[in-house]
Amino acid sequence: MTGYLVRRTAQAIVVVFGVVLLTFLLSKLIPGGYARAALGQRATPLAIAQFNHQHGYDLPIYQQFWNYVWGIVRHGDLGFSYKYNQTVRSLIATKIPKTLVLVGLSTIFALVIAVPLGILQVIRRNKPVDYALTGASFVGYSMPAFLLGQLLILWFAIDLHVFEFEAPQASSVAGILADPRGWILPVFSLSAITIAGFSRYMRSSMMETLTEDYIRTARAKGASPSRVLFRHALRNALIPIITLLGLTLPAIVGGAIITETVFNYPGMGLLTTNAATQNDLPLLIGTTFIAAVATVVGNLIADILYAVVDPRVRYD
Amino acid sequence: MTAGSASEQRAPGAAPEPAGGEAQQQFGGGLTIQLVRVFAENRLAVVGLAIIVFAILFCWIGPLFYHTNQTDSQAALLHSIQNAAPSGAHPLGTDATGFDILGRIMYGGQISLEVGFAAAGIATLVGVLVGAVSGFFGGFVDTILMRFVDVLLSVPILYLLIVLAVIFSPSVEILILVIGFTAWLVPARLVRGETLSLRVREFVQAVRVMGGGGTRIVLRHIIPNTIGTIIVNATFQVADAILLLAALGFIGLGVPSPQTDWGSMLSNGVSYAFDGYWWEIYPTGIAIVLVVVAFNFVGDALRDAFEVRLQRR
């Protein structure tokens, strides 16, 4: 187990290093480099040369890469946003807690909805309820996320006045949480992408578990159907969900861009959209880096949890 | 068994799953027919296929009969009413520029479907090649390629897409390339997995004994045997690409105006829908959901059809 932990963590570190390399290469793909992005299309060659010299962009490429890596390792330096006139690090740092709240709440919400739905579909399999839910999850999966968010605004905020049409704008996390009328719609619309996948997965995972020998043993002992379902099948069927959580993390983190933009939720996703529309490449590459690192860490946690929870899996 | 004839038999039909040796014998040459039968038994899949065929006809044949101006915004602004409700002249009303929405769904659908198919094609081609090479040659090549895939997979795809779309200002061609080159990771992993189990099988050893080189084995024996996985995944890729293009359109990185796609139409229409102009989102929304659902139905059914265990019911 310890060996597995060490190896898995080492692998995650390699991937993070790869992400550093990838984001560095992306910044080198920009036509004209950061200089053009910062100074605009009409900048004189002299100004560009000065800019490049000042920021060390005229050094040999391996030197630049080393400076980039060292900057990140030493003081989390992700560059400078010329549009906001602030370091990318400080811009992102204030937004991360808010996005974590959104992503965390959505994940919990998705599980709370999807697991019972999956079980319901197993109990009523091939009955109208099963078909209806399968159909609904197909539609949920097939709808552009921004469309769902905006339809929710249209129906529940503008027509029915049940919820706010905009996310809470409070500057603190506590302030955001204090306003459920504001955050329910964004949380629901972000979790909708995953609810569809989770419940389908839960359904098939449960079906598969029900064919196991130990289920037949439990039934033969005379355990009641509900006891077999919840005590024997559900616990084992839940295990793969941990892996699925890790795997869907990129989709949720990416989906937060859309959700935050639809609801004007002041997190990292909205910051990303603004960076994209304003051509703020240092900021955009910075948020991409953070999103990728968050995904790697999330996956690492999911894998370790899996190893802890499932004693049948032994990694030697 | 000569290498050539073996792959000719396998190539058009659908190749068995790694564990499907006996099933292959059982069905012999009728594998394709079997496949069609399992597919056709699934009513949802037939409906899905019908929707896709209809959408293609609607978007490309439709404009031949239903003439509308979709490219000249100047003329649209001058000569038609903006945000007009559905009427005889405009069955689905007009948008904020004055473009006829029914015609615009055809026009935007062309681009959505084009990007969907082309990006899925690129993703599949790149993914299959990388996966097969990685799995077949193993060792150092495999380690490097798979670490590369790990790194790219850890970046949420929407982030990567946005960065690339901002760096290379979007046009239809750029969007196809950008989506295609971010979406090949999953097929690469799938094909690598299958290749790992295929490369130790007897028929591959036989080709090797007969002197077939690595390139020949990969292109004529390994890849044709993963065709089931490839086709199923490609179907889902089309659906995903249409949705990714829509997401980019929403952020403002979609196809440049006056060109449009379903996603851009929706994100433009939504603010007007808040004013009660429902026709600016519902018809387009229904179109995109129907088509994406259809591709998912077809993909699911194809997966069942290729699944040998289910064929033996």
Fold and architecture overview:
The complex is a heterodimer of chains A (316) and B (313). Chain A is built from 13 helices and 2 strands, in the order ααααββααααααααα. Chain A has helices at 2-29, 33-39, 45-54, 61-75, 88-123, 128-142, 145-159, 173-177, 180-209, 213-221, 225-263, 268-277, 281-309; strands spanning 80-81, 86-87. Chain A is globular. Chain A starts with a helix and ends in a 7-residue tail after the last helix. With 313 residues, chain B is an all-alpha fold. Chain B is 73% helix and 0% strand. Chain B has 17 helices and no strands. The chains are: A mainly alpha (316), B mainly alpha (313).
Task: Put the structure in a nutshell.
The complex is a heterodimer of chains A (316) and B (313). Chain A is an all-alpha fold and 316 residues long.
Task: Give me the strand/helix succession of chain A.
Answer: HHHHEEHHHHHHHHH
Note the total helix count of chain A: 13
Structural class of chain B: mainly alpha
| Stretches with pLDDT under 50, minimum 5 residues of chain A | none
End-to-end Cα distance of chain A, whole Å, is 7 Å
Considering DSSP H and I runs of 4 or more, what fraction of the residues of chain B is helical? over 70%
What is the general shape of chain B?
A: elongated
Number of helical segments of chain B? 17
Radius of gyration of chain A, in angstroms, nearest whole number: 24 Å
- In percent, how much strand structure appears in the residues of chain B? under 5%
Oligomer: heterodimer
Distance between the termini of chain B: 30 Å
- Major β-sheet annotation of chain B: none
Catalogue the unreliable spans of chain B. 1-28, 308-313
| Gross geometry of chain A | globular
The ordered H/E elements of chain B are HHHHHHHHHHHHHHHHH
Strand content of chain A: under 5%
Helix content of chain A: over 70%
Largest interface, and how many residues on either side? A-B, 47 and 41 residues
Tally the beta strands of chain A: 2
Strand order of the largest sheet of chain A: 1-2
